[in-house]
From TrEMBL:
Mg(2+) binds at D145, N174. This is 1-deoxy-D-xylulose-5-phosphate synthase. Its cofactor is Mg(2+); thiamine diphosphate. Homodimer. Keywords: Isoprene biosynthesis, Magnesium, Metal-binding, Thiamine biosynthesis, Thiamine pyrophosphate, Transferase. Thiamine diphosphate binds at H73, G114, H115, S116, G146, A147, N174, Y285, E366. HAMAP family: DXP_synth. It comes from the Bacteria. Coiled coil: none annotated. It is an enzyme of class 2 (transferase). It comes from Caldicellulosiruptor hydrothermalis (strain DSM 18901 / VKM B-2411 / 108). It catalyses: D-glyceraldehyde 3-phosphate + pyruvate + H(+) = 1-deoxy-D-xylulose 5-phosphate + CO2. Its EC number is 2.2.1.7.
Amino acid sequence: MGILEKVNYPEDVKRLSISELYELAEEIREFLLYNIANTGGHLAANLGVVELTLALLKVFDPPKDKIVWDVGHQCYVYKILTGRKQKFNTLRKFSGLSGFPKSKESIYDSFDTGHSSTSISVALGFAVARDLKNEDYDVIAVIGDGALTGGLAYEGLNNAGRYNGKLLVILNDNDMSISKNVGAIAKYLSKVRTKPRYFKLKKAADSLVEGIPVVGKNLSKFVRKVKGSLKYFFFPGTLFEALGFEYYGPIDGHDIERLCEVFKSVKDFERPVLVHVVTQKGKGYEHAERFPEKFHGVPPFDIETGNHLSDNTSKTFSEVLGDKLCELAKRNPKILAITAAMPDGTGLSKFAKMYPQRFFDVGIAEEHAVTFAGALAKEGFKPFVAIYSTFLQRAFDQIIHDVCLQNLNVVFCVDRAGLVGEDGETHHGSFDISYLSLIPNLTLMVPKDTKEFEMMLEFAAFYQDGPIAIRYPRGSCKQVGFYDEIKLSEPEILKEGKNLAIFSIGRHVSMLYDIISKNKLDVTLVNVRFIKPLNTEIIKRIVRIHEKVLIVEDNSVIGGLGEKIKSIAAEERLPKIKHIAIPDKFIPHGSISQLYSMLGMDKGSLTKVIMELIES
Ligand SMILES: Cc1ncc(C[n+]2csc(CCOP(=O)(O)OP(=O)(O)O)c2C)c(N)n1
Ligand SMILES: CC(=O)[C@@H](O)[C@H](O)COP(=O)(O)O
Ligand SMILES: [Mg+2]
């Protein structure tokens, strides 16, 4: 019988010897591999934190002690060891375990995460709350080197650096974001990792200086000052020390004994401490060690070959962006491409290879990406900024203040719009139409399929100035096959009929087109295309001549297309209007088709609604 079979909770981990913990680590790796090969999920990061998680559970006491996983995609080992092993085969499935920490799922999950770089702010908030309530527990933020490229992390560090209580930040440095980590901080960490001698010397100097005796109160102040200056004169100290943290590291993050030793020794420090651990992303699975970016977030895969098992052969919207932007850039030297740490996910890797001078991966820094693009546009360039809908939420103010206010030529490629599936509530792109359509000067387009997406990219590159956003979903969708020329604000009327008018956008257009064609319905179908500027005249004309209207959109019911059409219709004779959209709730994880059917947005439910409307 294996050790993992008997281990379910942190108490079970605490009982094990160090050598048993190593055995357990290997069993956990097998367990992760076997399960994630079936469910899909964030494999590489989890393989990298097995020993780190075991050491944390050996030394600390969750749920009393609060562990905050930054992003949270690396929390699987923690889930397995905090009572969720039996349900692990349901990971990321509808009604199953979430792929991220969820306080409603377990008392061991101290705070919900999914977006990057929040952990230090959260941990500091917990620490201050603890002090205010006179309670006693440890607070630990675990943040990756990629997450440390996000500005919010520095806001947290800056604030925490002047805090006087107990706070532990663990920097899990695997030299990788999803892709290779980028920027000055990544370079700095690499120096720290690869020059341990320098840091050993620094440690020796620290002890030497600490050895200078201190006598008398005033003298003590003076000597401390001198000590500090001496230390920083000879050895500039780590970035984190300069920010007010006690720094320990770099430490081998796969050495359980050493990790436990260090955690025990810093546990009672009444000040902020940062422990820098070095781990290997994908550890223990050859394919993931060699290609950690391919195994960051994986669909189900074959363990032997490492091949992803995905039946989708059509080109995704992201791939279309990559290809089309390369073509557009050839024709227009002013075109640039910007990503916030997602060159693969957004499809821009190809552009990066073809135009390295015109490609910018700015790290997990969506706010910066947008402001940076604004300035490039001001200087005559045409930046295309590709960011997932959910992460672009971070840059709401920058879109308004640094781009739209000055009517700058920035094109926002808003990927993963609408429901994304298995990543769930933190990742669905349910709000972009709501938060973008209220911004003056912005043109907002939604393609019905990938061919139309190409046409919109062409339109954005050559025919339209000012800020433009194009929102499109994860993956691919069925091609409709008919394409009117793209003209500013003009919808595409795909069918004209008498019994019902349907307004829709995005991937629902092809679904609706199929329903109408298959059932030979006498119905008008409008592919709205431009949410902004919305064509009020055409909408009014269509509303006037139909008794019944259906609006279908993959955006929140609040602030989406439906509300806009309803307010236009209100100025006319009001027809009977049915609006199908994402409800005003956070939508859980599951496959997109399961979620659509739960929300009545799948083909079957839409067919039923259309028939009922026609017959009513
Ligand atoms: C605001 C935000 N932008 C982008 C992402 C997508 N994302 C998830 S994990 C990740 C890389 C994180 O790297 P790191 O923190 O080093 O963790 P690792 O996977 O290397 O363990 C990125 C870019 C995100 N979750 N949140
Ligand atoms: C954890 C995280 O935020 C990313 O890894 C995200 O899961 C990627 O999503 P895609 O798989 O849609 O690129
Ligand atoms: Mg990393």
